[in-house]
Specification:
The chain has two helices and 13 strands.
Length: 177
């Protein structure tokens, strides 16, 4: 039945019988309002089914349309110095609530040591050390499904080579070299 339609014909038990929903065209009597979730059942509903519809109230008996998560902004690989702080971020869409679980080399992370935000959109790795080097990703879930981000590699910048500089003329002259 289309929105705004006030009457429709249904084939009930083999013969077409006009059924009015709301107010029939040309009628001065009847319900003068809006009907939501109009349903004809082929059988009598049980007391439990009627109670569930009644209890649904304004939220309705129809299941809501839910969309699975989609990652719209992937976490990015980073090249950092030892001792740096790293923030890996993800942006996802989908029917709320969305849940986040960051992983390190395929294993779920928890908030411990220098790791925080393991269940959020932002994973923080403070004071990065060599044991933090590896592949990070996040799994985003809701009631409709899940999405896994691409891998963000965390790599340490190689240490700078030692300075092999010669003393200046001033150092040689005044320092006795």
């Amino acid at each position: 039945m289309a929105i705004g339609t006030t009457a429709a014909t249904f084939n009930l038990q083999g013969s077409p019988i006009p059924v009015s929903v709301g107010r029939a065209r040309g009628s001065e009597s009847g319900f003068d309002g809006l009907v939501d979730e109009f349903t004809i059942y082929r059988r009598a509903l049980s007391a439990t089914e009627v109670a569930a519809i009644w209890a649904a109230g304004a939220s309705g008996k129809c299941k809501s349309f839910s969309t699975p998560p989609v990652i719209t902004s992937q976490p990015q690989s980073q090249l950092v110095d030892v001792g740096s702080d790293v923030n890996l971020q993800v942006v996802a869409s989908g029917t709320p609530p969305l849940s986040y679980q960051w992983q390190f080399n395929g294993t779920n992370l928890s908030n411990a040591g220098n790791i925080s935000g393991s269940g959020t959109t932002n994973l923080l790795v403070n004071n990065v050390q060599s044991n933090n080097v590896g592949n990070y990703r996040v799994v985003v879930t809701n009631t409709s499904g899940s999405a896994t981000s691409s891998v963000a590699a965390l790599t340490l910048r190689p240490p700078a080579p030692p300075h092999n500089c010669c003393p200046t003329d001033w150092q040689m002259h005044y320092c006795g070299r």
